Structure formats: C-alpha cells, structure tokens
Amino acid sequence: MISPGTLSGCSAAIWLLVTGSAALGGPVQSIELHCGKALQQPLCDALAGALSERFPGAAVSAADGQTGPADLTLRYVGHSQAADWISGYLEWQHRDGRSGQGPAIEQSVMDGHLTADSIADFAGHLVGQTEFPL
Q: What angle is formed at CA 99 by the lines to CA 27 and CA 30, rounded to 5 degrees?
C-alpha cells in the first residue's frame, strides 16, 4: 500500500477518498440487523452476509431486539411471503437520527420453492438497492 506521505497533494486527496478513514485507523462502522421472530433465520443470515459483502470493513451483527448503539440499525419489513415468493424492503436508522427505507423488492420462483440460494439472492438485491447513509 502506498502511504499518503509519498503522494502529491491531489493524489493524496484521491487516495484518502478511495481508501477511506479505515486505512488511517478510524473507527470501524457498526451495523445492527434486527432479526425478530417475524424474520426467519435463513433471511436474517442472508441479509447479514449481504451487508458484510457491501460493507467489508463494518462490524455486522444480528439482534433480536434493542441492543447498544450502532452506526446503522436495519429492519426488514416483509410485504408477503409464500413458499415460492417473497417481497419486502429494508428500513434503516442512522445513529445521528436520520432514517429511511429502500425500495420494495420481490423474488419469485416459477417452478419450485424458495431455496437458500434464492433467499440469498433476494437479500443481495435488498442490500444492493437500498441507499444507506454510510
């Protein structure tokens, strides 16, 4: 890795934008996913995995209820679910009070039931299409 001290002023600014504060020893972001009884475990696990992929430097945790303060708290809101179809969206709240939600996403299987892979695909779309404040 190139240290910022060996770069020109403009290059150093770009380097900081690309690498972020984690490269300079900044705090790790914490993301908490609320996985209450309404959220089935396979979907909770898939969402946690998708969040870890999208935010590789963040500490992602799943909780059943209120825990300590996190930089970002998420909750899945389901519209409906059947053996071959699922739809819903993510609601988020930032530690500074901002809140929002992502678009409603649906996933269906035409010739079978939802599988772990199709649920993981659904979770990836939920996380990928939601604009988070991180």
A: 20
Task: Answer whether 101's CB lies under 8 Å from 120's CB.
Answer: no
Residues 109 and 121 sit within 8 Å (Cβ to Cβ): no
Side chain identity, residue 28: V
Per residue in 51-76, pLDDT tens? 999 999 999 998 776 566 789 999 99
Q: What residue type is assigned to position 42 of the chain?
A: P
Residue with tokens 């209450």: 36
Instruction: Write out the two tokens for 14.
Output: 């770009």
On whether the CB atoms of residues 92 and 32 are closer than 8 A, the answer is: no
- Overall pTM > 0.85: no
**pLDDT, tens digit (0-9, with 9 covering 90-100), for 93-111:** 999 999 999 999 999 999 8
- Cβ neighbours of residue 69 closer than 8 Å, sequence gap 6 or more: 95
Helix (H) or strand (E) holding 78: strand 72-82
3-state DSSP call for residue 127?
A: helix
Sign of the C-alpha dihedral computed for residues 46, 94, 32 and 39 taken in this order: negative
